[in-house]
Amino acid sequence: MDNLLCLTSTGSTNDDAWQLALKGAGHGFGIIADTQLAGKGRLGKDWVSPAQTGLYCSIVVRPNLPFTEFPKLTLTAGLALCSAVEKLLPGIPFGLKWPNDLYCNRKKCGGILTESSSPNCPDEESFVVVGIGLNVNTPLAAFPLELQQKATSFRIQSGKVFDILGLYHKIHDSLLDHVRIHETHGFDHILQEWRKRDLLFGKEMQWVTRDKKVITACGMGPDANGQLLARDNSGRVYEILSGDVQLADTGN
Q1: Residues 27, 149: one domain?
Q2: pLDDT tens for residues 200-247?
Q3: Which of the chain's ends, N or C, has fewer CB atoms near its CB within 10 Å?
Q4: Rounded to an integer, what distance in angstroms lies between the CA atom of residue 206 and that of residue 220?
Q5: What is the CATH number for 214?
Q6: pTM of the model
Q7: Could you read off the pLDDT of 68-85 as tens digits, one per residue?
């Protein structure tokens, strides 16, 4: 298939997709690997990629949007992912944790890493790489011990084994559809649907500031720019641009 590169193993599908995007890979081009040796998560974290059990892929998108909209595509991609798996596993509760995590029954089952071209890149050459890691057929024993209480997979939740390549195509199509919605109807349409799946809204949550201070506040959901808002007991409202936000009662 011309718009999909399938690999047995690679360092990071995001790194591969980035290089191919620089060489002109088109909108919707994807890379999928059976395993990653150096899978990447947000904030420099590793993404554990047990061989042949998960979906590890990256998709190049070239949105007809100004560069200022590119950061919001993380939420657009999250909504696309959640919408696709909700159809695949009806009746199983999924939700989104700002800015990029997919949860199932309060345990993490997927994550997204978006990386964009330089703001100095000409509009016709600009792109965003959307990396997706999803625990699909992963048995509990395949997770490191420190993750076994926090992570889950489709197989654990449903008892079923899934066709990973078929799942990729559903998510790929959902991503391109939601990027098109973002382009045509604006981010507000995406945001309204994202908020319906917001796991942090109305919940006590914590994060660590740059000066190492732990803040506890109640989630108010993302604003029109995709920043997370939270209000503490004194009424102060925080705008969270980035960081590792966790539910105060669970550490997730």
Answers
A1: yes
A2: 999 999 988 878 888 999 999 999 999 999 999 999 999 987 767 888
A3: N
A4: 13
A5: 2.30.30
A6: 0.92
A7: 999 999 999 999 999 999
